[in-house]
Amino acid sequence: MAFKAQAFRTFGKLTFGFRTFGKLTLAGVIGASLVAGDVGAQQKTPSPGSAKAIFGAEKLPTQGPAQPIGFYAKGCMTGAEALPVDGPTWQAMRLSRNRRWGNPAMISLLEKFSQDARTRIGWPGILVGDIAQPRGGPMPNGHASHQIGLDADVWLTPMPSHRMSYEEREDLPFISMLQKDKFLTLDPKVWSEQRAELLMLAASYPQVQRIFVNPAIKKKLCDTWTGDRTNLGKLRPEYGHDSHFHIRIKCPPGANGCTPQPPVAAGDGCDKSLAWWFTKEPWAAPKPSTKPPKPPREVMVSDLPKACSAVVDAPSIASTEAGTYGGPSAASALTAAPAAAPPVDTGSALPSLGPVPNDKPVVQ
Ligand SMILES: [Zn+2]
After folding, report:
1. Model-level pTM greater than 0.85?
2. CA of 170 to the centre of ligand 1 (A)
3. Distance in Å, CA 300 to ligand 1 centroid
4. If you measure from the C-alpha of residue 132 to the centroid of ligand 1, how many angstroms do you get, rounded to a whole number?
């Protein structure tokens, strides 16, 4: 619910057009996910047998070495590790989703980034949102990418000083950096220079290839960042991403089944690809058409790379604890929902579908 409410706040009067546009562009989700970070959420319950239903039902990763298979928005993974629920400089959020699984390269990056954030810029610690499902793959709701363990969402809210309960991690509201009722404008009461430092720190790691942020955040950095701008081009403007940012890392060395994405174009990206977001075009309702578009065919496991069929059937590791980064002792009792916890309505708890650009800007 929180995310929907935020979308309403964020887009104000544009909400109607925003939602309509989203529904009508589902057909472009797979293609558009090349540029999209978290858009592409389809709220409809996936059919039994679809890739979303099958991968969404996996509780544990496969045994064996970690391998990303396929592309960020069309693939799966083996040998995932779980980010521990708590670390000295992080807390994992929305535990009921079971999406704190990733390639070890991503999990160790999150650990390093969270430590550096504290020691180098004084950010108390990070709140980590979705990484991936235990075996990756398409999710029943929430993201087009995050399928191969190399994408992770980090909140723009600092970690609180206390260790949050299971329920707090479910309910802590997303805080938008955008000003209510203003078009793509950061709220100076929420935004801070320290958040700019956090983003540029994340972009500084060589293995990080892209960071998806709201266009208003990108513009702010373009206008105000006076430090080294070498990595500014890694910050890519995208719908949403106003309360969290999305870190995407490159295919790790030796990951032969991983399909790389081309690097971002040279330069800081403070150019017409950013200016486009401040035109009406990305936010306009689609032209009325006489025929409603055909709903897209659901993605099946057979549409994913061939190796993903074997990933579905492969034996599991023994337990979440056994797959937790740092070993079973790093796992936490919080991974289990308390008996009294109400059932989680994942449909409404996840972001509603944002509009997806059809062919612009070109793949970033
Ligand atoms: Zn994301």
Report:
1. no
2. 17
3. 22
4. 9
Token digits for 2? 């929180």
Q: Are 166 and 95 in contact (CB under 8 A)?
A: yes
Measured CA to CA, the distance from residue 328 to residue 321 in angstroms comes to 5
Q: What is the mean pLDDT of each run of 10 residues along the chain (364 residues)?
A: 36 33 32 40 78 97 97 98 97 98 98 98 98 98 95 98 97 97 96 98 98 98 97 98 98 97 96 96 84 86 98 97 89 60 41 39 41
Q: If we measure between CA atoms, which residue out of 141, 302, 115 comes closest to residue 205?
A: 115
Residues 224, 185 contacting (CB under 8 angstroms): no
* 235-237 and 244-249 strand pairing: unpaired
Q: What is the CATH number of the domain that holds 288?
A: 3.30.1380.10
254: exposed, middle or buried (Cβ count in 10 Å: 0-12, 13-18, 19+): exposed
Does residue 272 belong to any structural domain of this protein? Answer: yes
Q: Is residue 227 part of a domain?
A: yes
- Residues having C-beta closer than 5 Å to ion ligand 1: 37-38, 153, 246
Distance 342 CA to ligand 1 centre (A): 26
The CA distance from 20 to 22, in Å, is 5
Retrieve residue 13's tokens.
């009067």
